[in-house]
Design goal:
single chain, 319 residues, mainly alpha, ABC transporter involved in vitamin B12 uptake, BtuC, two-stranded antiparallel ribbon
Length: 319
């Protein structure tokens, strides 16, 4: 058993990361928090629209995007990779809409067609140009959040802001939060009832594509840290957990941020204990929070619903 699961040492798991390794742990946790927060805020609207798997489609379409960007630019720099992945995300969104609206194929099937096809194209490109495309599979699939402290520091006006990827993700998270606050009504109404949004003068089509564009930016910004496969969990878990705890959308957004913080911190300690991928550990920690919420509050809601149904039934019978 000890060979399968490492021995738990409280000092190493909970104390050392915040004493001896503080300079590394703080940036890893901040990156995990920013990724989970940005993904979670956007993910709430995807869940409302029943489009959670669109994030999965975009995360998989990143592979051909970064492959093509490398072939065109010949550089593995962050800017070409980011632009290539962003274009691929936009193409995925448009492709899903074209398949869905120009045919009888339903949206879930359109999502499946788009992301599997584009992911396959990415695999073929890498296979054909394997000698030219030097891509780290672990970075694409699992992320490199543990290597973030090894990056150089960004300085601005004499202040040290942090590693470039953390600063970039912090800016993306801030922009997402501002957009959600500024266009809260438009996003909420168009997500719940597009017909009502139209009657209020809200262009639901524009809001939809704006949300997809924001989703693309978030996914592309996050995949370097958590990987193309794990980013979908960050899009769904915070919002799904929040829906179990509250029916009020503003409260759900706040709970999403709290879930992101707890996932990042608990995931760090879990990863240190098991000596495994920290990004995956953060997702597992988030899953644990979801299970705990479902076990406690999900049971209470089910019991309350059954009690209400029984009272209605008794009222009809005249008991």
């Amino acid at each position: 058993m000890n060979e399968l699961i490492p021995l738990f040492e409280f000092q190493r798991v909970f104390v050392t990361p915040w004493t001896q390794d503080f300079s590394s742990s703080v940036w890893i946790v901040l990156m995990g928090f920013f990724v989970a927060t940005a993904c979670g805020l956007v993910g709430n609207y995807l869940i409302l629209r029943r489009m959670a798997l669109v994030g999965d489609a975009i995360s998989h379409s990143i592979l051909p995007g970064i492959a093509v960007a490398f072939l065109i630019s010949g550089s593995r720099g962050s800017l070409p990779m980011f632009l290539g992945a962003l274009v691929a995300g936009a193409v995925t969104t448009v492709l899903i809409e074209v398949i869905h609206k120009k045919s009888r194929v339903k949206q879930d099937a359109a999502i499946g067609i788009a992301f599997t096809s584009l992911f396959a194209v990415g695999v073929i490109l890498i296979s054909l140009f394997a000698s030219k495309v030097d891509l780290d599979q672990e970075c694409v699939l699992y992320g490199e959040i543990a290597f973030i402290p090894l990056e150089g520091m960004v300085e601005f006006a004499g202040l040290t802001l942090g590693p470039p990827s953390v600063v970039r993700m912090a800016l993306v998270t801030l922009v997402v939060a501002l957009l959600v606050g500024l266009f809260y009504k438009e996003l909420l109404v168009s997500s719940f009832d597009p017909a009502l949004a139209f009657s209020l003068g809200i262009n639901s089509t524009f809001v939809h594509y704006a949300l997809m564009a924001m989703l693309s930016v978030v996914v592309v910004s996050a995949f370097e840290a958590v990987g193309a496969i794990l980013v979908i969990a960050m899009l769904i878990l915070p919002g799904a957990t929040a829906t179990l705890l509250s029916h009020r959308f503003p409260v759900m957004l706040g709970l999403t941020v709290l879930h992101a913080a707890l996932s990042a911190v608990l995931g760090l300690h879990l990863g240190v204990w098991l000596n495994c991928s920290l990004a995956a550990a953060m997702v597992v920690a988030g899953t644990g929070l979801f299970i705990a919420a479902a076990a406690v509050f999900g049971y209470q809601q089910t019991h309350a619903h059954e009690h209400s149904q029984n009272n209605n039934l008794r009222g009809r019978r005249g008991d």
